[in-house]
Specification:
The structure is a single chain. With 473 residues, the chain is α/β, with parallel strands linked by helices. The chain is built from 15 helices and 17 strands. The chain has helices spanning 3-6, 22-37, 60-76, 87-92, 114-122, 196-200, 208-220, 236-242, 249-257, 277-283, 302-308, 314-327, 346-359, 386-409, 449-452; strands at residues 13-18, 41-42, 50-55, 81-86, 104-106, 153-155, 178-185, 204-205, 225-230, 264-267, 292-298, 332-339, 363-368, 415-426, 429-436, 441-445, 468-472. A six-stranded parallel β-sheet has the order 2-1-3-4-5-6, with helices on both faces. It has a four-stranded mixed β-sheet with strand order 8-7-9-10. A four-stranded antiparallel β-sheet has the order 16-15-14-17, with no helix packed on it. Strand 14 and strand 15 form a beta hairpin. The radius of gyration is 23 Å and the shape is globular.
């Protein structure tokens, strides 16, 4: 069904609530674009006739937050259409219809059909005329599956079966200067703590022609930096090889760099194995690639890594960070760390702390292990108490605060390029806010631009949006 030709949501107000990762944010932005193209109008939650909750299911806590948000939306807007989509929907399925807080459930391969699904709900009992219309799925036979309210429907399929990359458009940039671009989906890694392979399916890629077309759309709308994202971005090459292709992630980066208007390319979360001398040889030859690398570590102790089913040792990880620091001047290295994983002894945690001090990350995102039903780790013995997790989290958060301050101080007095993303008006004055190539957040006092940056004859603050300026701290 063509949204432009056959679906109209003209005048319908809507709001989207996004939980979870940057991939979810990209998909929420894409759904917003699709709904606006169908005539719907963005509004605050308090006024919305349609509320969409894009859920997360990475932990049991994420599941709970998703449910809470559904209930909050229903309580605030009892007469609105409440639709839930995303990973928690994919994991919980039809059981959520019995919850009573949602009207529609949209799985992870149906977000591109959000306009059609809402149109059919708002215009009851439409005739299904072609295979492009979302299929009603009962989990077994594909027979229409309705709750007591015949309009409450579940739109999803068994995503564990091989499926194609779902085509979602890049969000129209508006006043943004940086935008996410999802180029990969799915995961084959099956880490013992993670449910994502079950709710996102196997690895698959966006076709190169679509990547470049959407990059061009973003650039023409004023975007100067694209952030390449995916559920398992490092597996891009693996998905291509499985299809007999020789296309690589570095090929994609090189071609995006050639798109007029794109001045920066930032890579999303990477598994460490993608960082090889050959990979670095390519990306260091492309000046537009930002020297900022988020490497997913999870633990800095080998025994814990093995229980997590992570396929590297801490020594191998350290070699990778050494390669990056040899290739770039003070690259921003960031990571994720889970504390309190089942069986993590005091000795293992102390080993993690010692190795993290050596790794000296710019930032660490610290997560307390949360049991997730359906994963191997949920059934492991020696589950730790919340008190132990809290104390270990506190120690690592203090460490990352110290490392962050030291890293940022190393650039004091140097001139850095800042991509201006927004204008802040506060009681202390007007500031231009943006990030450096290494993702250091900078607020530049507008009044001192003429003496501190390479642009003089100050134009209005808003005219700096879409510019990269050189600022000396």
């Amino acid at each position: 069904m063509s949204t432009q030709n056959r679906v109209s949501l003209t005048g319908r107000s809507f709001h989207i609530i996004t939980l979870g990762c940057k991939v979810n944010q990209f998909e929420s932005d894409a759904m917003r674009r699709l709904l606006e193209e169908a005539g719907a109008v963005w509004s605050g939650l308090e006024q919305a006739e349609i509320c969409i909750i894009n859920t997360c299911s990475v932990t049991n806590i994420a599941d709970r937050k998703s449910r809470q948000m559904m209930h909050h939306a229903r309580k605030l807007r009892p007469n609105a259409v409440i639709a839930a989509c995303g990973c928690y929907v994919q994991a919980a399925g039809e059981s959520l219809l019995r919850d009573g807080s949602v009207d529609l459930l949209i799985g992870n391969d149906r977000k591109s059909q959000v306009s059609e699904i809402l149109y059919e709900y708002l215009n009851p009992f439409p005739e299904i005329t072609d295979d492009k219309t979302a299929v009603l799925y009962d989990g077994k036979s594909g027979v229409p599956n309705l709750s007591q309210d015949p309009r409450k429907r579940l739109f999803m399929t068994d995503i564990s079966a091989p499926c194609k990359f779902e085509q979602l458009p890049a969000a129209l940039p508006g006043s943004m200067t940086r935008a996410y671009l999802k180029i990969q989906d799915g995961c084959n890694a099956f880490c013992t703590y993670c449910i994502i392979p079950y709710v996102r399916g196997r690895i698959r890629n966006k076709p190169l022609a679509d990547i470049l077309r959407e990059t061009g759309v973003l650039a023409s709308g004023g975007v100067r930096e694209v952030v390449l994202t995916g559920i398992h971005l490092s597996a891009f090459d693996d998905a291509e090889k499985a299809n007999g292709s020789t296309l690589t992630l570095t090929d994609v980066i090189r071609q995006i760099a050639a798109v007029p208007g794109i001045e920066r390319i930032r890579l999303g979360s990477l598994e460490p194995r993608v960082i090889t001398p050959e990979f670095l040889q390519v990306i260091t030859s492309i000046p537009k690639v930002c020297p900022h690398f988020h490497l997913s570590l999870q633990s800095a102790d080998d025994r814990t890594l093995k229980r997590m089913n992570r396929h590297y040792t801490i020594e191998e990880f350290m070699d990778i960070t050494r390669l990056l620091r040899e290739a770039y001047d003070r690259p921003a290295l960031t990571t994720d760390v889970i504390v309190g994983f089942p069986g993590e002894t005091e000795e293992e945690f102390e080993n993690t702390c010692a190795n993290l001090e050596k790794l000296d990350f710019y930032e660490m995102h610290v997560f307390k292990y949360s049991r997730r039903r359906g994963t191997l780790a949920d059934k492991m013995p020696d589950q730790l108490t919340e008190a132990v997790k809290n104390e270990r989290s506190r120690r690592l958060l203090a460490m990352t605060a110290s490392h962050k301050a030291k890293y940022e101080a190393s650039f004091k007095g140097e001139q850095q390029n800042v991509l201006v993303e927004e204008v802040l008006r506060t009681d202390k004055g007007i500031f231009l806010r943006g990030h450096t190539e290494r993702y250091i957040l900078v607020d530049i006092p507008f009044e001192c631009l003429s003496s501190s940056c390479s642009i003089s004859n100050q134009p209005a603050p808003e005219e700096f949006i879409n510019r990269i300026i050189s600022f000396k701290n």
